């Protein structure tokens, strides 16, 4: 049967599918994510979903590969740019929080899917994403310390841990405070806090 | 059957549940699997708890009785804010590292299972931890010891990143930095933020 409606390209469709997955995960929870429900949200048949992806797992893997391309490699660039550590840190935090704020559902997917499914391959990828973010952040901080800008007595490892809690805190705040969450003020306060830890006194 | 036996049995079931979460992941947690781990039939399991969510609620209740009561006591005691902050962080840290299953359960949204009541209980627990921490910070600012230009609310959110990060690291690596030094390091980072 020929489809009389405007046919969307495979890429467009895949984008729609991924967007719907994130929406479901963020607003309704992981448990709601069945291919049947997803198909309904996208407005296609389940069969059509499987023309674009062989399985739900493949969809999730595609989202994660986007995160690697769009976020992780961008963060690597920011961390390695020939700019001052202060500027890099500012860009790093802004970029991360904006990305996670606009792609609601990513954090949940990244940090809970692995534990929920207990899929070793997936866990490994998540582990890499987590560690890379921590590692690039650490690089900027250590550069600043080496350049004598920031306090060399602070415990960088635990600062990186506290920093890595920010995306998850952001996520929890967004879920619990959906109506009046102020992203910019959240972002600025987090920067102030990190800079205060780093400052020489 | 006496109440004491029943209480022991319930503890055993909860222990079995933590074992499964820590070793196999929340995804593997079925009542069938749980009965097997606890050495009971599924029927017997239902005699003690109505459902999986019923067990989660019971665990949440334990957390309120143990961890939250202790943290509240610290937050409200009449010791100096610095002393309270240190005790708070170290108690919190040692409870969460000592109860890995609880930590996973409390901070993994997957565990909500779409159950609204459970989600409410868990966000209540999250908020109380934050609130007690916030109380100490606000007291220190009121006494003029700490920098009051920092938002106590946001700093508390930032602090709550620690348990969540530990949870992620535990999920991913099945490992924890267990030593006491970590909580003191976190304490010194937090006090640096608070310094005038």
Shape of chain B: elongated
Class computed from helices, strands and strand pairing of chain A: mainly alpha
Element-level helix/strand string of chain A: HHHHHHHHH
- β-strand number of chain A: 0
**Strand portion of chain A:** under 5%
What would the CATH topology of the largest domain in chain B be?
Answer: Tetracycline Repressor, domain 2
Strand proportion of chain B: under 5%
Radius of gyration of chain A: 19 Å
- Given as residue ranges, the uncertain stretches of chain A (5+ residues, pLDDT < 50) are none
CATH topology of the largest domain in chain A: Tetracycline Repressor, domain 2
SSE-based structural type of chain B? mainly alpha
Shape descriptor of chain A reads: elongated
Main beta-sheet annotation of chain B: none
- Number of distinct helices of chain B: 10
> Mind telling me which CATH architecture of the largest domain in chain B this is?
Orthogonal Bundle
**Number of separate domains of chain B:** 2
Low-confidence stretches of chain B: none
Question: Which short descriptors sum up this protein?
Answer:
heterodimer, A: 201 residues, mainly alpha, Arc Repressor Mutant, subunit A, Tetracycline Repressor, domain 2, 2 domains, 9 helices, elongated, B: 196 residues
Structural features, described:
The complex is a heterodimer of chains A (about 200) and B (about 200). With about 200 residues, chain A is an all-alpha fold. Chain A folds into 2 domains: about 10-55, Homeodomain-like (Arc Repressor Mutant, subunit A, Orthogonal Bundle); about 55-200, Tetracycline Repressor, domain 2 (Orthogonal Bundle), CATH 1.10.357.10. Helix content of chain A is about 75%, strand content about 0%. In chain A, α8 (about 155-175) runs antiparallel to α9. Chain A is elongated and about 60 Å long. The model of chain A has no long low-confidence stretch (mean pLDDT about 85). With about 200 residues, chain B is mainly α. In chain B, about 75% of the residues lie in helices and about 0% in strands. Chain B is elongated and about 60 Å long. The mean pLDDT of chain B is about 85.
